[in-house]
Amino acid sequence: MTTTELINDYEGQATYQITVQGKVDPLFMNRFNGFVVTHTETSEKTLSTLTGRIIDQAALSGLLNILFDHRYDVISVMKIDQ
Questions:
Q1: How many separate domains does the chain show?
Q2: Max alpha carbon distance in the chain (Å)?
Q3: Is the overall model pTM greater than 0.70, yes or no?
Q4: What CATH number should be reported for the domain holding residue 50?
Q5: Given the DSSP bridges, would you call strands 14-21 and 73-81 parallel, antiparallel or unpaired?
Q6: Are 50 and 18 in contact (CB under 8 A)?
Q7: How many angstroms separate the CA atoms of 37 and 65, rounded?
Q8: How far, rounded to the nearest angstrom, does the alpha carbon of residue 82 sit from its chain's CA centroid?
Q9: Boundaries of domain holding 39
Q10: Within a 10 A sphere around the Cβ of 65, how many other Cβ atoms?
Q11: Is 29 helix (H, G, I), strand (E, B) or coil?
């Protein structure tokens, strides 16, 4: 994939799936329209998966910064559709 293709791949709205360590309160995510929160618990840790539509890279960066500010460790960020 060329640099131009990579840049074009990250433009515009897309649905993202963000996984963090810890239990994210769904009420906390109500501030972000349309996000669904699911939890996976193991004997070792709890993971929260946040799935929702993000309008652009600035909004994605802002959401990641908010999660970081609330001390959530981001495990993965995956774009699941455009």
A1: 1
A2: 43
A3: yes
A4: 3.30.70
A5: antiparallel
A6: yes
A7: 18
A8: 14
A9: 3-81
A10: 10
A11: helix
